[in-house]
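Following up on my earlier message about coenzyme A. Here are the inputs again, as you asked, copied directly from the submission form:
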Amino acid sequence: MSGFETVIYEKTESIACITLNRPHALNAFNVRMRDELYEVLSAIKADDEVRVALFRGAGDKAFCAGADLKEFLTAPSVVKARQIRSIRDLWRLFLSMPQPLIAALHGYVLGSGIEIALYCDLRIAAPDAVFGLPEVSLGILPAAGGTQTLPRILGLSGALDMLLTGRRLSAQEAINMGMVNQIVPREKLLQTADDLAHKIASFDPLVIRNAKQAVIKGMDLTLDQGLDLEWRLAAKIRES
Ligand code: COA
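Thanks, got it. Here's what our run produced:
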């Protein structure tokens, strides 16, 4: 897959790498990027060869500085936006990805940048990563799932702290609050993420997919229902 304007898609053996590629605009998320990510994620989801997908940002300064504020002012009507979302819901697609997703985060990780990272299963950050949800200061809600994914990862108080104040977190604060799994020197960020992807890819893909499914789906179930789900997924592995 090639010919994209806002993302780079590379597949090496069983690892897919998606680079958000608008470094001149700090990889701000625009409509084109939404459409291209939708295409790339759909292809990855259908590709059994891909065992892990890795997300990164191009350039030195940012993983993604949030929604494209220049395009924001030219947004179509609310009705149109709702229609587009119903036929091309990138955020539900992220949520439905069977393969583990890893985010390699550096520089600004703002707005939809955080929201993309929160759809990933593992987050590795460079020490210069800065996390924030500036939406409230712009008079909008984070609408790429942030109000739902953030409390599931940070807990209620950490999520409300970020959402209501728009304050920025350093990489150290982000790891203390459980938003990132590890901090590694900037020059080792991609290698560390790639090593992790290869380690996960070396395991039985059905076991990995089912483990992810058990945890992600289980989050929305009662413990009793979750135990049933776990049993069914474990049985599928035993039967295979
Ligand atoms: N949308 C569109 N363009 C953006 C952008 C965004 N969210 N964030 C940065 N850019 C562009 C800038 O307009 C600038 O482009 P230009 O060189 O053509 O003027 C370029 O990226 C570099 O940004 P700049 O502001 O010069 O870098 P900085 O280091 O001084 O500041 C930020 C970095 C992230 C603090 C600042 O760019 C910013 O506050 N961006 C907006 C963040 C935001 O509110 N996102 C929306 C969340 S909903």
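One observation from looking it over: The CA atoms of residues 98 and 209 lie 6 Å apart. Hope that helps, and feel free to reply on this thread.
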